[in-house]
C-alpha cells in the first residue's frame, strides 16, 4: 500500500494539526495556578479527556464551546478550585487560541497539491474557522460535530463523512483518514472500513494525554510522528511512482 494510492485525505484537526494539549493546558493555567503544583500536566489532560468524552456522549448536540465550558466547570469542582462563570466561558472560547503544530501549515500546503483535503472534527464551525487561520490552507470540505449532531467516536460521524463524500463521487478506497487520536478516530474509522494514518504526536510519552484510551488497540495502516513525516513519505512515494 502506497500513499499515492489515495486521492482524498480526511483529517482530524485537534491533536493532529492543532496542538490541543498545549492549548488546553495554557487555557487551564488560571485554574491550575490555584493548585500550586498539586495537579500536573498529564493529570490535568487525563481528567480533561475523561470529562470531555463523557460530556460529548451525554449531550451530542451541544456546541463545542459549551462542552468545554461545562468541562471547565466540572474540573474546578472536582479539583476544589474557584472559577467564575466568565472563566468557564473563556475556556470554552479558547479553541481559536490553541497553537498549530509547527509543521502543519507547510505539510498541508504540500499535500494540497496532490490530494483533496477534508476535515472531520469534534468542534463547531466558528471554532474551526479561527483554527484554520493558523493552518493557512483552504480545505475542500469541513464537516464538524455541529453539522452531524454527534461527536467522534460515535460511528455516525464517519457514516456522515462517507455519505457526503460518496455524494461528491469519492469512493471509500480513495480515502485515507489521518489522525492522532486512536480513541476518537482510528477505532471508528477502521470500523467504517477506512484506511488510516496515525500521526503519533505523543511518540515517546506514556499515556493518552487529552484522549481516552481506545477500547481496543487498532493497527493503523501508516504511522508517522509528525505531519512533516507524512509529507516526506509522500514525496518519496511520489518520486518512486
List the helices and strands and how they pair.
Blueprint: E1 8-11, H1 20-35, H2 41-58, H3 64-79, H4 85-92, H5 104-111, E2 116-121, H6 125-135, E3 141-144, H7 145-148, H8 155-167, E4 175-179, H9 182-191, E5 195-199, E6 222-224, H10 227-240
Parallel strand pairs: 1-2, 1-4, 2-3, 4-5, 5-6
| Beta-strand percent range | 5-15%
Helical/strand content category: alpha/beta
Under CATH at level 1, the class of the largest domain stands as: Alpha Beta
Report helical residue fraction: 40-55%
Q: Enumerate the spans where pLDDT stays under 50 for 5 or more consecutive residues.
A: none
Number of helices: 10
CA radius of gyration: 18 Å
**CATH homologous superfamily annotation of the largest domain:** HAD superfamily/HAD-like
Q: Give the termini distance in whole angstroms.
A: 12 Å
State the strand order across the main sheet. Answer: 3-2-1-4-5-6
The CATH architecture of the largest domain comes to 3-Layer(aba) Sandwich
Query: What is the CATH third-level topology name of the largest domain?
Result: Rossmann fold
Shape: globular
The tally of domains stands at: 2
- How are helices and strands ordered from N to C? EHHHHHEHEHHEHEEH
Describe this structure in words.
This protein is an alpha/beta fold. The chain has two domains: 3-19 and 98-240, HAD superfamily/HAD-like (Rossmann fold); 21-97, Orthogonal Bundle (DNA polymerase, domain 1). The protein has ten helices and six strands, in the order βαααααβαβααβαββα. It has helices at 20-35, 41-58, 64-79, 85-92, 104-111, 125-135, 145-148, 155-167, 182-191, 227-240; strands at residues 8-11, 116-121, 141-144, 175-179, 195-199, 222-224. Helix 9 (182-191) links the parallel strand 4 and strand 5. Helix 2 (41-58) packs across helix 3 (64-79) and helix 5 (104-111) runs parallel beside helix 10 (227-240).
Amino acid at each position: 500500500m502506497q500513499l499515492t494510492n489515495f486521492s482524498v485525505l480526511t483529517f482530524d484537526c485537534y491533536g493532529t494539526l492543532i496542538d490541543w494539549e498545549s492549548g488546553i493546558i495554557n487555557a487551564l493555567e488560571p485554574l491550575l495556578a490555584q493548585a500550586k503544583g498539586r495537579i500536573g500536566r498529564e493529570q490535568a489532560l487525563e481528567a480533561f479527556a475523561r470529562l470531555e468524552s463523557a460530556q460529548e456522549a451525554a449531550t451530542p448536540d451541544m456546541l463545542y464551546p459549551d462542552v468545554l465550558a461545562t468541562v471547565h466547570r466540572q474540573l474546578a469542582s472536582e479539583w476544589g478550585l474557584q472559577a467564575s462563570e466568565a472563566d468557564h466561558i473563556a475556556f470554552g472560547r479558547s479553541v481559536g487560541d490553541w497553537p498549530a503544530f509547527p509543521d502543519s501549515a507547510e505539510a498541508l500546503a504540500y499535500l494540497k497539491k496532490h490530494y483533496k483535503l477534508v476535515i472531520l472534527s469534534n468542534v463547531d464551525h466558528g471554532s474551526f474557522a479561527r483554527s484554520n487561520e493558523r493552518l493557512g490552507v483552504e480545505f475542500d470540505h469541513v464537516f464538524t460535530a455541529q453539522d452531524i449532531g454527534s461527536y467522534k467516536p460515535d460511528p455516525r460521524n464517519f457514516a456522515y463523512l462517507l455519505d457526503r463524500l460518496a455524494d461528491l463521487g469519492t469512493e471509500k478506497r480513495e480515502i485515507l483518514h489521518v489522525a492522532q487520536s486512536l480513541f476518537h478516530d482510528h477505532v471508528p474509522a477502521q470500523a467504517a472500513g477506512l484506511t488510516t494514518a496515525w500521526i503519533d504526536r505523543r511518540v515517546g510519552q506514556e499515556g493518552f494525554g487529552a484522549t481516552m484510551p481506545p477500547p481496543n488497540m487498532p493497527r493503523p495502516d501508516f504511522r508517522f510522528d509528525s505531519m512533516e513525516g507524512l509529507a516526506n513519505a509522500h514525496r518519496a512515494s511520489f518520486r518512486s511512482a
